Amino acid sequence: MRALNKLSAAQVKNAAPGKHSDGGGLWLHRRPDGGSQWFLRVTIHGRRREMGLGSLTYVSLKEARETAEKWRAVARQGKDPIKEREKEKRLAARADHTLAIVAAEAFEARKAELKGDGKAGRWFSPLELHILPKIGQVPIEEIDQQDIKNTLAPIWHAKADTARKAMNRLGIVMRHAAAMGLNVDVQATEKAKALLGKSRHKPKHVPALDWHEVPAFYASLDEGTVTHLALRLLILTATRSSEIRFCNLSEIENETWIIPAERMKTGKEHRIPLSKEAMGIIEQAKPFERDGFLFPSVRKGVISDATMSRFMERRGMEARPHGFRSSFRTWCAEATDTPREIAETALAHVVGGSVERAYRRTDYLEQRRELMEQWADHVTGGGNRG
């Protein structure tokens, strides 16, 4: 057996330029410039291999001996230590690129494109709730269509919209991983869709109050509370509950409510002409104002996204707040001669193709102002109820 541990700490420290053996294939190479490098010589399948073990600056004699023994043991098994070390590095790198880690990086990279940095739209939620708990710790390079199929199968038909969003987000994450140079199957989500098949889920429309019944409900909101006033303004403006909840006095200008792009589902600024009735509701809400918000919660922030829905539930109603947008749209179609593009613009819907929109530079604000006055007249019981 070859002698081991030939060098002492003093010899290592004072070694002259050249190569100095510690035995067992461990060498210290002292360069003429003063730098020193440990390396190990082993013979594998009749071929001599040399692997660096680090600089003397960072690797002590003791550490070099321990590392050398580790790789000598590998060599005794007939394995190439250099290849085995590379394999370890690749495995470590894969561990650093789990789906959860890459998903977080992909989300961070997209935040600037998302409304409210992705928080308002909950971009990350479908991944966080339905995918990461199951396969988040799997190296993303190992994920295939079968993994994705098994993960989303429980909700593919029962929660079709959520499953669709989760699949979409996962596809974005896989493409982000490919851009990072990782060996992923960017077609895995499409293959998983093929395995899952067409969703059998039939979408349900949000229950809405018949437009004929809106005046009676509006009249019942007569207590002047934050919830009553919020529901009244929601009905009068035909907006979404999130837009009402975060309504801020700074957004009201000359009888027009200007909702900034970051708060809109479309990502575009939306102007809403306020009827006289709507302006009156805003005045009634001002005493409740906190930090500019008209509809604050009892403790902090604004009323929750469930406040108005729960109120209608307690009244035994099937209809929900979002349904008043449908009530308004049906009223436009059945009780007025409002052109489609004006009615749709009132709901902040995208109207027409890209070319048409490029040439149409109006949001019909004044025409909609007249329309919202007519709607307010109906809602308050002053118009023809049909």
Could you describe the 3D structure shown?
The chain is α+β, with helices and mostly antiparallel strands and 386 residues long. The protein has helices spanning 9-13, 61-76, 81-96, 99-110, 125-130, 132-135, 145-156, 160-179, 188-196, 214-220, 226-237, 241-245, 276-285, 307-314, 323-335, 340-346, 354-359, 365-379, and strands spanning 18-23, 26-30, 36-44, 47-55, 252-253, 256-259, 270-273. The mean pLDDT is 88. It has 3 domains: 9-79, Integrase, DNA-binding domain (Double Stranded RNA Binding Domain), CATH 3.30.160.390; 97-196, Tyrosine recombinase, N-terminal domain (DNA polymerase, domain 1, Orthogonal Bundle), CATH 1.10.150; 214-379, Orthogonal Bundle (hpI Integrase, Chain A), CATH 1.10.443.10. It is elongated. The strands form 2 sheets. It has a 4-stranded antiparallel β-sheet, with helices on one face. A 3-stranded antiparallel β-sheet has the order 5-6-7. Helix 4 packs across helix 8 (160-179), helix 7 (145-156) runs antiparallel to helix 8 and helix 11 runs antiparallel to helix 13. This is Tyrosine-type recombinase/integrase.
Topology:
Elements: H1 9-13, E1 18-23, E2 26-30, E3 36-44, E4 47-55, H2 61-76, H3 81-96, H4 99-110, H5 125-130, H6 132-135, H7 145-156, H8 160-179, H9 188-196, H10 214-220, H11 226-237, H12 241-245, E5 252-253, E6 256-259, E7 270-273, H13 276-285, H14 307-314, H15 323-335, H16 340-346, H17 354-359, H18 365-379
Helix pairs in contact: 4-8, 7-8, 7-9, 8-9, 11-13
Q: Could you give a short description of this structure?
A:
The protein is α+β, with helices and mostly antiparallel strands and 386 residues long. The protein has helices at residues 9-13, 61-76, 81-96, 99-110, 125-130, 132-135, 145-156, 160-179, 188-196, 214-220, 226-237, 241-245, 276-285, 307-314, 323-335, 340-346, 354-359, 365-379, and strands at 18-23, 26-30, 36-44, 47-55, 252-253, 256-259, 270-273.
